[in-house]
Amino acid sequence: MSEPELAHAGLNLGPSAELTRDGAENAIFGFWIFLMSDAVIFALLFATYGTMVAGTAGGPTPASEFKLLPAFVETLLLLTSSATFGRASIAMKYAEPRRTLFGWLGATLGLGLTFLALEANDYATMVAHGAVPSRSGFLSAFYALTGLHGLHVAVACFWLVVMVGQVLAYGLDARVKINLLRLGLFWHLLDIVWIAIFSVVYLQGAIR
Amino acid sequence: MSPSTPVLPALLGRFGWHDLPFVRAWQNPTASEIIGAFAGGLVVVGAIAVAAVLTRHRWWGRLWSEWLTSLDHKKIGIMYVVLAGVMLSRALIEAVLMRMQQAVAIDAPGFLSPDHFGQLFSTHGSIMIFFMAMPFLTGLINYVVPLQIGARDMAFPWANSVALWLTIGGAGLMMASLVVGEFSTGGWSGYPPYTERDFSPGVGVDYWIWAVTLGSIGSTMAGINIACTIYKLRAPGLRFMRMQMFCWTSLCTAILMIFAMPPLTVATLLLALDRYADFHFFTNDLGGNMMNYANLFWLFGHPEVYILILPAFGVYSEVVSTFSSKDLYGYVSLVLATMAIAVLSFTVWVHHFFTMGQSANINAVFGIATMTIGVPTGVKIYDWIWTMFRGEVRFTVPMLYSIAFMMTFVLGGFTGIILAMPPLDYLVHNTLFLVAHFHNMLIPGLLYGMLAGYHYWFPKAFGFRLDERWGRRAFTCWVVGFYLAFFPLYVLGASGMARRTQAIFEPSFRPWLYVAGVGAFILLAALASLMIQLYVSIRDRAATMVEAGDPWDGRGLEWSVAAPPPEYNFAGLPHVDGRNPFYDDKHDAGRPDPYRSPTDYSDIEVPRGSMAGIAIGLGAAVAAFGLVWEMWWLTLVAAEVVVAALILRSFGRNQHRTIPAAEIAAEHEAWLARVRATRPIPRRLETQAINRGLAEVRA
Amino acid sequence: MNDRRQELTSYAIGYTLSLALTVAAFAAVRWPSVGARATFGVVLVLGVIQMAVQFRCFLHVSLKRSSRHDLQLILFSTLIIALMVSGTLVILFNLRERMM
């Protein structure tokens, strides 16, 4: 507590003495560190993808597999979900009616699940014509990278459901608020990782 | 091992009777199998014996509520160190077995089969790095750092417990591999394609993958926790440039853990995908590239070296300064050197695979970067020497380790410079020269440091000092044993003897291997001396009590509280205005009395115990065990336990306990009264019974 | 409710900018006007700008004095990630060139 004036990026709660005492700062800062550690994992999967994208072993290639339209729609879904989560956190901060908060969280969840459904559909299409991960190094790297991102989105959706349960059980007490903030950071960061995915994976693959 | 027929595939996955070492030894009673069965039996008997002792003394309840579920950083730290001690014993015995095998297997088969030998060097390395060194240093940091920065606990006490139990879970998998199945023969680095299913179809590599992955995740969590603690929980006035050196090295180690453990997690999980789901990351065919693995592994592996060494540097800084009764020389240069080492450690990983086939220019860049690290390390050595210069040096056990470290580590550093030159590296790559080099770095640079820290802080943690005489005996054995066991390996390596060799066909190696074998036995004697020392110290503890808490005339805040410290560490949070707050208060006239009462007492919140940490750590280990044996149902059930524990914990409220101010006041005032009744002693008497933990102040 | 309006505006700006940058990146690939390498360069630059926009508008990371710890953390992480990714790509591409 050497610098009590310190406010964290993402620690977006407004003045609240109760929260400071409960170590909201530490909680958020610690979560930022975790996110950066997670970002290293993604970065290494990107690097691995970069080194393996040429390893198609005579099988499907990026150009033959990646379609721009589904990738574009998925991007819009995730971007919009990031914005709706932002709206939900404003609803939390300014103590708007519970209905509003749940409405925006619900919208976020819906967008996240739709994203997952579309991604699953992409996978199914690829698998249907033989583009499975065991086919080549390129496909292994593709499935590991996008799959890990999808897994993160799925975890975030599950976490969101748990948080709704906590709001119902405890209202917006200090810990619920902190955890919603953390989930928000997580969600925004997944969108940022997706920017890298659509740029490096889908768009690079579709460049002719 | 030949694949054995599964017994009950639906329930037990790929387990067959042949997977039990006892059955193997019965069917094929060779020395190698009997040793394996004996080791497995030792694990089982040891576990039963511990359980029996606990039951007989009715200690289960206390163990559970006061230790296993505790969130107190001090107890978690101690449990880490206990884990490190247990695993050190196993891995050291394995080392002795390997040395014996190499000493007798000269133009002869020896007593260990090649497969068994392979398992031994793999477990020895994996345990020493992930389950001896990492828990030891994490435990010391856990115990000491909150006390040094004037905090009541870590930033995330619960996550601390989860990290501990994940590490214990990983270590548990290592132990399980002795009793059920086998371990990897792929070395501690587990290079594919050898560790792919095509070449290692058994359960060994899977044990390795999941044990290391659990340890890696646990270390990442520990790193986040330590960094956040040092960033956020420092006492009022404790600016960064006033922190103790051990806090600085802990901070840098934590940052390295945060960024260097993820590459390991990625490497092991991608290898798992290759093995379980037929991916092609590191295979020979279909576009895989095994050098991707080497690259990922050493992106972790090199910073890991500094994760191991930096905390020891911190310990030496504390020890040298305390036992010379002098300020640390060149504090700022030590801080800068630590930071420089931390950042540079991310720029040198290629020197672990100079021979991969990349261009000479790339090798040159990484060779030069490697040599650069020698500069900040050299700065540190000079700083420690200057700290001792004209100081009141006392050759206590921690100081002996520090001095042995300085000389031995510099020799190891020289051979490191040799290895950093790619053309020379090509010559000794994969030989015993390398083995000698990294043991020459890690034994003084990690083990001596951890042992020095163990001797130094033990009185703080338990309230009595360790036996000095057995400490010196252990020290002598560690040093003599090290030189005898590893210097011959330089000669052997330079003569071309490959590492990890089960049988030798060059008779001229014989004398060197004999000397190394003798050295290994002396190292075993060192471990035995440590155990005897612990026993003797506990037996004679009445004569070495240091309840006043300051046996060495210490400098940092950790020495300003009772030994052992109360659960809440500080009755009133200290205010810090310099680098040696406690020492200055003791020795400088005109400063406040360090043993004064705080202006007022207030209630203190401490975390209640939680069994979620244990559930998550052991649940993850059981899930991993299911993955190893392809018992999918077990994995599913255990994974659900983990998720349920997480969710239940997040729904929990009322997770703190308040200690009332009156209770704190009573306890603290009673301690102060006992301090006033204690006789202060001069430094020359500090290893004698008269030392009750209060330092004499020169008039 | 002035703060609230300001924050809503921040999210709206972030959303609009991100949308525009996304559309620009996809359009650059869908209707290429420069060579393949240049197009990929454009996509990468647009992606990095969009990341910066989202860090600023969604995650509220700023250059203000009050959030220096986060900024330091993010910049240090960026340094390490850059070292790891660029090192990996340089080394393994070099290896491939020499093996092929």
UniProtKB/TrEMBL annotation, chain A:
Gene3D superfamilies: Cytochrome c oxidase, subunit III, four-helix bundle (1.20.120.80)
Superkingdom of the organism of origin: Bacteria
Keywords in alphabetical order: Cell membrane, Membrane, Transmembrane, Transmembrane helix
Domain (Heme-copper oxidase subunit III family profile) ranges: 1-206
InterPro entries membership: Cyt_c/ubiquinol_Oxase_su3 (IPR024791), Cyt_c_oxidase-like_su3 (IPR000298), Cyt_c_oxidase_su3-like_sf (IPR035973), Cyt_c_oxidase_su3_a-hlx (IPR013833)
Physiological role: Cytochrome bo(3) ubiquinol terminal oxidase is the component of the aerobic respiratory chain of E.coli that predominates when cells are grown at high aeration. Has proton pump activity across the membrane in addition to electron transfer, pumping 2 protons/electron.
Protein name from the UniProt record: Cytochrome bo(3) ubiquinol oxidase subunit 3
Annotated source species: Sphingomonas rubra
UniProtKB/TrEMBL annotation, chain B:
Any one of the GO BP annotations: respiratory electron transport chain
Membrane topology term: Multi-pass membrane protein
Annotated transmembrane regions: 34-55, 76-93, 127-145, 157-180, 207-233, 245-273, 293-316, 328-354, 360-379, 400-421, 441-458, 470-492, 512-536, 606-625, 631-648
Listed GO MF terms: cytochrome bo3 ubiquinol oxidase activity; cytochrome-c oxidase activity; heme binding; metal ion binding
Compartments reported by the entry: Cell membrane
One cellular component (GO) term of this entry: plasma membrane
Annotated Cytochrome oxidase subunit I profile domain residues: 53-577
Keywords, in A-Z order: Cell membrane, Copper, Electron transport, Heme, Iron, Membrane, Metal-binding, Respiratory chain, Transmembrane, Transmembrane helix, Transport
Family the UniProt entry places it in: Belongs to the heme-copper respiratory oxidase family.
Protein name: Cytochrome o ubiquinol oxidase subunit 1
Automatic annotation (TrEMBL), chain C:
Transmembrane segments: 12-32, 38-59, 71-95
Bilayer topology term: Multi-pass membrane protein
Tree of life domain: Bacteria
Gene Ontology molecular function, alphabetical: cytochrome bo3 ubiquinol oxidase activity; proton transmembrane transporter activity
One GO BP annotation of this record: electron transport coupled proton transport
Keyword annotations of the record: Cell membrane, Membrane, Transmembrane, Transmembrane helix
One Gene Ontology cellular component annotation held by this UniProt entry: cytochrome o ubiquinol oxidase complex
Subcellular location: Cell membrane
UniProt keyword Cytoplasm present: no
InterPro entries: Cyt_c_oxidase_su4_prok, Cytochrome_c_oxidase_bac_sub4
Family recorded in the similarity comment: Belongs to the cytochrome c oxidase bacterial subunit 4 family.
Known role: Cytochrome bo(3) ubiquinol terminal oxidase is the component of the aerobic respiratory chain of E.coli that predominates when cells are grown at high aeration. Has proton pump activity across the membrane in addition to electron transfer, pumping 2 protons/electron.
Subunit description: Heterooctamer of two A chains, two B chains, two C chains and two D chains.
Official protein name in the record: Cytochrome bo(3) ubiquinol oxidase subunit 4
